[in-house]
Design a protein that fits this description.
The complex is a heterodimer. By secondary structure, chain A is an all-alpha fold. Chain A is built from 8 helices and no strands. In chain A, helix 1 packs antiparallel against helix 2 (about 25-40), helix 2 (about 25-40) runs antiparallel to helix 4 (about 60-85) and helix 5 (about 100-115) runs antiparallel to helix 6. Chain A starts with a helix and ends with a helix. In chain B, helix 2 crosses helix 11 and helix 5 runs antiparallel to helix 6 (about 125-155). By secondary structure, chain B is mostly helical. Chain B has one domain (about 60-310). Chain B is globular and about 60 Å long. Chain B has helices spanning about 1-20, 20-35, 45-55, 65-85, 100-120, 125-155, 160-165, 165-175, 180-195, 210-215, 220-245, 255-280, 285-310. Chain B contains 13 helices and no strands. Classes of the chains: A mainly alpha, B mainly alpha. The interface of A and B includes residues 19 and 132 of A.
Chain lengths: ~220, ~300
Amino acid sequence: MNAQTVTDCVLVLVILLNLGMLAVSRLASGVRLFAMQSLLLAFLPLSADVLEGESPGVHALVIAVGTIAIKGIVIPHILLRIIRTGEVHREVEPFIGFTASVFVGALLVIGSFGVATRLPLPTSPISTLIVPVALSTLLLGLLTLVSRLKAITQVLGFLVLENGVFILGLLLLKQTPLLVEMGILLDLFVGVFIMAIVVYQIRREFDHMDTHLLISRKES
Amino acid sequence: MTALRGIAAIPEAALVLALPPLLLSFVVKTKAWFGGRVGPPWLQPYYDLYKLVNKGVVFSTTTTWVFRAGPIVNLAALLTAATLIPVLSSDALLGFAGDIILVAYLFALGRMFTVLAAMDTGSSFEGMGASREVTFGTMSEPALFLSFIVLAIVTKSLQLSQMVGPQLYASSNSIGPAMVLVVGALLIVFLTETCRVPVDDPATHLELTMIHEVMALDHSGPDFAYITYAAALKFLLLGSILLHVALPHPGWPRWIDAPLRLVELIGLAVVVGIIESSMARLRLNRVPLLLAGATVLAALAAVLTITRSTA
């Protein structure tokens, strides 16, 4: 088990978690799968350094810690809180069925493996799987985004999409300044925060409307 | 050398034929242990078979020859498959390039005749069981074939006994994560085809929820003995395909290889027992999702191996 095999296993697990997110029927398990995926991804910048035979640099460490803190802990926590406290229906309610969306997802994965081999890259990637996995994570995130009914699952799809961007960013880890990565994480955090508030508001509106109707019925 | 090989194969073949009911006994004993019971005696499946063989047969008047042929064709197909599949040692009795397709379709032939025999009785329960069996069979077949494709690419061979064993062991370091996916897919296929818990419950007592058992309701006497034995044999054969892929042995001498494989088969039976005691079967409409998952795992493994081998 060298670092190369470990990296490959992590990337394959990332795809499996993506497909798992399409298959689960409970919102909370979907969020947990996303948290697991982000934790796995956090180790990739470290492994990129280890593969080049150096100890992990500050740059990679900061990105790893930031990813674990924001995407692995804070964001899942916010989402789980919304699901728990808000009386939202806990099921996913897909537009296309679970089996069908897993199959479409698998086709997208195969497609991105096919496309990835033809893409010219500026630098040689740490693993041949990086580009196909990044593309398929992007596409599967997009699929989750468009094929699910709930506001929460749409947030989830957006987050998975961002994970894809993160994997793609690993290609240029050495060339990008730290500030850019941190900026993306911050944007993401603020985005989820705002969406959480919006989701909360939607629910409150509907709750309010419901109780109002009930009261008026009683009075009449 | 070939004569010597032939003589060495006789005790092994005898063991392969005698083993299947004992493996089922291991599953039953594990489940009994989980339930805090003693369970039936170790040789109970053999007693059952003996009892059934000595009984008479009753045929319904609505049935035709298809009903009588069902159990026999099923058993014959599985016995033929047994000659092509490496069970204890990693080379099978027979083999030729492309025999994986024959093996897969021998399983399919056995299933087809069981299903036809079930439909021949005209019972609505059996028709329902047949419908489910065929649906799940159709969905597990792509997973099986995609797994075979991965093995064929890795070992560059189309003969089942060449696709496992030392050839697979030699290249198992270079394949990486794809092999784990194939093992996962094959495990799901194994549990589906042998009618084990997440898909079907062999101990269920409700005709409405049965899949495999319901198709055998009208068979009696020796015919039912054939069906029971064929189910046990299928467990052994698919289980050994799974084990040969999951734990490939480097060409060890036969006297280490075969006993070790036997221990692994017993281990697999215990694992099946643990799975059966620790989880409930899936809702029928969730089963296709599980099988789709197996197909997707195998497809992903195939894509990974293809990218790896062209890069």
